[in-house]
Write a structure and sequence with these properties.
Layout lengths: L1 E2 L18 H12 L2 H9 L3 E5 L5 E4 L1 H6 L13 H5 L21 H12 L3 E11 L2 E16 L2 E10 L1 H32 L5 H29 L8 E4 H12 L1 H4 L2 E3 L8 E4 L1 H17 L7 E8 L2 E8 L5 H4 L18 H12 L3 E7 L3 E7 L5
Parallel strand pairs: 8-10
Antiparallel strand pairs: 1-4, 2-3, 2-6, 4-5, 5-6, 7-9, 10-11, 11-13, 12-13
Length: 383
């Protein structure tokens, strides 16, 4: 789970380790089950809600959350922490599970819980979370609220998580897509006005209009694919295609200014063919290439190549920089971007969603000062 606008002053805190013994956990859970107020509160909340002990373990959950879980059994989340229950991708990275990994430093839910436990006051924030549920990666955004609660003398915490993914998706769509749409339409209008003027070179203007119309069509298609992928409705058109041919097409679509800063490495021996949807793969690689070039210092160059690793086709895009840990932990979140002034945040998210959910591959990255930052997509092999 990743923080986006959590409680102030908590950004570098790791949660205290340790969990209640099974016997103590059972006593605490039974107290909640026997308390009419707890039942009333949980039944009244129409979003996810849980009661937590001081070790941030779940003692009770409301029906809304229980109905959404893939885990089985009547006490299927009892004793777990919220990231473990929701299947956050970072929940198993730390030595004490949810709350103990590096990424947890920026978890909006965790910081809200810690603030309430420390102050006894209500705490609110937003939580961006990447889930891996039933083999499917997805990004979600929650508005979180922690409130103190005393049950039979025990200081507990009521945590609610309101799904604001649709709101965040709409905000991002408005910032990115509508902004780009208006820019393209203004450009088309400008060239049309030039064409109306005396002495205009009709053929030259028509070329510019066609280029802008093509860009506009590509942007609309990209947004359509993302929306279909999020709904599980995008079906790939699998074809056998030469690995280098995908890069040839990528260079044609990127344009001269981007390609001039992207060094294409020679193909590895035996790289050959792969079976994929070249259009969707091209969108993933385009996002990787654009992000790599945008991260370059003046005069810098990025690299791209196609290879095979253990028989699996793989594309890699590299730039010489190294990401800061706070960026690396959040890089695939839909609403997160290092380019805040430009309102971006779909490039890396789109890579992950299309590359894994639709193409069935693995999208990831490595970052260090020796090799720089390498984004890759590794696709299924022929077997």
């Amino acid at each position: 789970m990743i923080l986006e606008g959590g409680p102030s002053g908590q950004g570098g805190v790791f949660a205290p380790p340790g969990r209640a013994t099974p016997a103590k956990l059972k006593v605490q859970a039974n107290l909640c089950l026997d308390d009419a107020t707890v039942h009333a509160v949980l039944e009244a909340v129409d979003s996810y809600a849980v009661i937590l002990n001081s070790q941030r373990q779940i003692l009770a959950a409301n029906p809304v959350l229980l109905d959404a879980l893939t885990l089985e059994g009547p006490a299927r989340c009892q004793g777990l922490r919220i990231g473990e229950t929701l299947e956050c991708v970072h929940a198993c990275e730390g030595p004490d599970g949810c709350g103990s990994s590096r990424a947890c430093r920026r978890c909006g839910a965790l910081l809200s819980i810690l603030a309430t436990q420390a102050t006894g006051q209500v705490s609110e924030g937003e939580c961006l979370i990447s889930l891996q549920r039933e083999g499917r990666w997805e990004a979600r955004e929650f508005g979180v609220r922690s409130s103190p609660l005393v049950v039979a003398g025990h200081a507990l915490t009521l945590l609610t998580l309101r799904d604001i993914s649709a709101q965040k998706r709409r905000e991002t769509l408005e910032r990115i897509f509508i902004h780009d749409l208006m820019n393209s339409l203004q450009g088309l209008k400008g060239w049309a006005e030039i064409l109306q003027g005396a002495g205009a070179d009709a053929a030259s203007v028509a070329g510019h209009v066609l280029d802008m119309a093509g860009h506009l069509t590509a942007e609309v298609d990209a947004q359509r694919r993302l929306l279909q992928a999020e709904c599980g409705e995008l079906v790939p058109d699998l074809q056998s295609v030469a690995g280098e041919a995908v890069l040839d097409e990528l260079e044609r679509t990127l344009g001269a200014s981007l390609v001039s800063r992207l060094v294409r490495m020679p193909p590895a021996p035996g790289a050959g063919f792969l079976r994929t949807d070249p259009a969707i793969l091209g969108r993933v690689l385009s996002n990787m290439a654009v992000n790599a070039v945008e991260a370059l210092p003046p005069g810098g160059l990025a690299r791209i190549w196609f290879e095979r690793r253990s028989g699996r086709p793989r594309y890699v895009v590299e730039n010489p920089g190294c990401m800061a840990p706070e960026v690396a932990d959040r890089v695939f979140q839909r609403s997160f971007s290092t380019k805040a002034n430009r309102g971006r945040g779909l490039g890396t998210y789109g890579m992950k969603l299309l590359g894994e959910t639709v193409l069935g591959g693995q999208v990831g990255f490595t970052t260090n000062w020796t090799e720089g930052t390498r984004f890759f997509i590794e696709l299924p092999g022929d077997d």
